[in-house]
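As a warm-up, study this chain.
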Amino acid sequence: MSEITSSSAQNRQLADWYTKIKNGNIKLPRFQRMEAWDRWRIQSFLETVIHNLPVGVTLILDVGNDEKFKSRYISTAEPITKDKITEHLLDGQQRLTSFWRALHNNYDFETYFVYFPEFQNYHEQPWSDETTIFCRTRYLKNDQKYPLWADLPKDSLKRGCVPIQLFRPENIQSEIDNWIELATKDNKPKPTDENFATLIEKYYKDKESLRDKIIKLRETISHFNLPYLSLPATTPKEIALQVFINMNTNSKPLSIYDIIVAEVESEMKSSLHELQNDLNKKHPKIKHYFELEFLILATSSLLQDKLPNHRGMAEMDKSILVKNWDILENCLGRMAVFMESQGLYDKNRLPTNAVLSVIAAAFSNIPENGDLAGKGEILLKKYLWSSFFTYRYENSAASRAYQDYINLKRVLTNEQNERGDFYTENDIPVLNRKLYPLADKEELLTVGWPKKVNIRARGILAISTYLGAYDFADGKQISRENIKKREYHHIFPDALLQEANIDSFLALNCALITGKTNRNIGRKDPLIYLKERYKWADEEIVNSRLNSHIIPIKELSNGGYEGMENKGRNAKIQTDFDAFIEKRAEYVLKAIQLLTAGKQITVESILQNSTELPQAIKNLKSEIENIEIQLRNLINNKLNRISNNPFEQFVAEKTRQSTEFKIASHLKKFPGENAENYQSFRKKLNFFTLGEFKELIIKKDTWNEFEEMFKSKPNVEHRFNQLFTLRNQIAHNNELNDIMIKDGEASIIWFKSVLKNELVEK
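Now compare it with the structure written out below.
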């Protein structure tokens, strides 16, 4: 390795930096991130310059005879006639880019000025007491950039503003004089004016004062010192990169992506920026779901069996990332197509982004055509919708995504476990209903507004976008192109529900419709709005649009609140709203059951009346409910004998949290109930699942209380599993086969036999 000459800070004035940038002597290594500063950072840096305050050093690498890195010019600074490249700017890009672009005022929607309070004659009070930097944001209207004054010298000067491009360190005195002339010509007195001699003298004095201010500040800017450290041309490439990573003076630290970009550039002689740009051109839909940089690294990490987080990204082999780029590219492209097929179009409506890299990486094990392709996509559909309607991704999303991916891959590749058994869907945690049961109706009724980051709320909204979410008025289906024009609409008006002291911000009271339709509905009672719609369009057409949002028409068609006295009015609104969200919760629950089973859904399949349960199944349902009551009483009696607080002492933390959440949801739905009524262990047991009963019975520190009755832990687990399967199938109206029924009946007989001799207080 060549010896490196030590570096010390050297001075360089901005005029010299400017000249080198203009001539193309300075370029940026291609691995550098793009512009990152917002207007506030730019403004702050320019303030530092005009007040001649110190700033940190930059870092350059002398190029010598050959560029070590592929490079690009500073944004908007590519010269027409290119000079020899002498330096690579390793650190300081944001400062010098801001300096160059501001002094050319070529930002699309910001225009920068130097503000001189002494020339301000527009507002009663000066905007600032001292010379400072002012940024005016711009906007387009009819292809014209507004506000217009920002491009007019006279109107700019009236506000005390001089455009900052007049301060660039070049010989532009004629440009400055021309601007001053245009800015002040309307102030020039006419010979016929009274006191003309005095006025004309003042006019020229003011012009000269303005010119002097500009010239003096130009000198300050031109001679401003921006020091630098210089690495000699003999510096090895890997050392230069390491210095770049370690010496980042930007207040926005290097991201893991920035570092990996540099590592890829060094080790593989490839540009991750270029690969990413090509990916975006081939598959432009991917970026709508999340930042492309993150998806690339997270998916690549999973493909190397690493966690999809910073740790996994840092640990993965960067050479494999580049070598398998075609696979990664294909996986991400297929992921975007799959997400769109599920009615998911953008990150703002996506319930959780944790699924994206999992689905993308899983496609590496799914062929593009044939039966296996169909089976693989059904499995991904189960995974996707289960992630929306369980608590799997509420916490530790990266580690859980990794676990789910590993087991998805095992199922897709027909891998066997250490016992020689093939992995099944039940081995994928998010699909294991004992570990992660689906949301129930009670939970759905309390889920909050989907505009907030709420997995369940956005999941409910996703069901309607899956079904088309047609606008109530114009009848257009939701799509990636129009979803940004949709607004979160209260189906039962917010104002109406507020009057009755009812929480309107529930996911079940939300639909995505256009802003125009939203404002047209306003606070109208649902019945009034429906009648208006029916006048404009066929009733069947209007109903079909509402049904695409799984909105129950009958329960929505309520109103007649005008003229009612407050108490009766509020009671009717409460009754109507409860009926509406209860029915919509039933529809959503049915959609959840079908989607998490990997099935297609249609409006008809959701809204059709459920078939009546056969009497024999009703009897089994009743038997299970009785067993659950007896188990609650049994557990309550047994554990209260040995503990003053069995809930805290014996119940697992996860179960405690789940129970408290269910109680809170119940109280939110029934605000008249007293929370104190749910403090006893027996009351809390009403919110336990069968699986949680089982865990409490066979727990190491409670088993002694139950062993005499239940005899064998394995037998307890087996019987509970049989009962759970039967109960779950009945509760979700799923098909029951003879084996499920027989197993369930056997478990019922067993539980009745065990519990019959036990004195259980009701």
